[in-house]
Amino acid sequence: MKFEEKTFVLKNGQQALLRQLQPTDAEKMLEFLRETSRESDFLLRYPEENIMGISEEVQFLEGICQSDNKIMLACVIDGSVAGNTSLRGNDFRKLRHRGEVSLGVRKAYWHLGIGRAMLTEAVALARNLGLQYLELDYIDGNARAKGLYESLGFREIARIPQAYRQPDGTMADSVLMRKCL
User: Fold this and answer.
1) CATH number, domain at 43?
2) From CA 95, how far away is CA 90, in angstroms rounded?
3) Backbone dihedral region for residue 162 (phi beyond 0: left; psi -120 to 50: alpha; all else: beta)
4) Between 114-128 and 143-151, two packed helices, what is the crossing angle to 10 degrees?
5) Which residue pairs from 164-173 have beta carbons closer than 8 angstroms and sit at least 24 positions apart in sequence?
6) Average pLDDT over residues 50-60
7) CB neighbours of residue 180 within 10 Å
8) 54-66 and 26-39 helices, crossing angle to 10°
9) What is the sign, positive or negative, of the torsion defined by CA atoms of 109, 111, 115, 116?
10) 11 lies in a domain?
11) pLDDT of residue 52
12) Is the confidence at residue 164, as pLDDT, over 80?
């Protein structure tokens, strides 16, 4: 799947570039994943669980770039990855009408419109793929994510109770959301 890069202006007036991630971005992506997992308890991994090496990340990004129904986009500011979103279509015929999206933004860039810009592009790409539904999940308690997703038309469809163990030992639900395309 291909994406033509776009520039947009953040809420603070700064210029940002939205582009497809390439295998040459492996080192920047690994650094992004390590940093964002330290900044928020609302991401899937703990910092020490980001153990993929550069060669594995290169291989992973090569596979995404060669796919017809998967893509990873980065928001790049001053040469560094400020945000990332991935769109994954399904390979099985019974599931081809559904896709999944995920999102991460560095804390220094929260509240500047990056998440909205990336998800808006992911929704457009999902429509171009012919998907009927776009789905995501988030860790209950992440009010910022919930507000963004709802503002873009995602609606809660289910919960998995106590799906995530937080750093303090408490449990949090996984909230599943869907947007009809």
Assistant:
1) 3.40.630.30
2) 6
3) left
4) 50
5) 164/139, 166/41, 166/139, 167/41, 167/46, 172/139, 172/140, 172/141, 173/139, 173/140
6) 89
7) 9
8) 100
9) negative
10) yes
11) 83
12) yes
Location of structure tokens 């992004």: 32
Structural domain harbouring 85 = 6-134
DSSP 3-state of 128: helix
Residue 180 lies in a domain: no
Buried/exposed 17-44: b ≥16 CB within 10 Å, e otherwise: ebebbebebbebbbebbbbbbebbebbe
Q: What share of the chain is helix, strand, coil (3-state, %, to 5)?
A: 35, 35, 30
pLDDT more than 90, % of the chain: 87
Residue 154 identity (one-letter amino acid): F
Reported confidence tier of residue 169, pLDDT bands at 50, 70, 90: very high
Structurally, the chain folds into a number of domains equal to: 1
Asked, for residue 141, whether it belongs to a domain, the answer is no
Q: How many angstroms separate the Cα of 43 from the Cα of each of 3, 38, 85, 92, 137? A: 25, 9, 13, 27, 11
Q: Could you tell me the sign of the dihedral formed by the alpha carbons of 20, 128, 144, 51, in that order?
A: negative
Tokens at 82, concatenated: 């400020």
Query: For residue 16, what are the contacts with CB-CB under 8 A and spacing of at least 6?
Result: 7, 8, 9, 10, 75, 76, 77, 82, 114, 117
Q: Helix, strand, or coil here: 176? A: strand
Q: Is the pLDDT of residue 50 over 80?
A: no
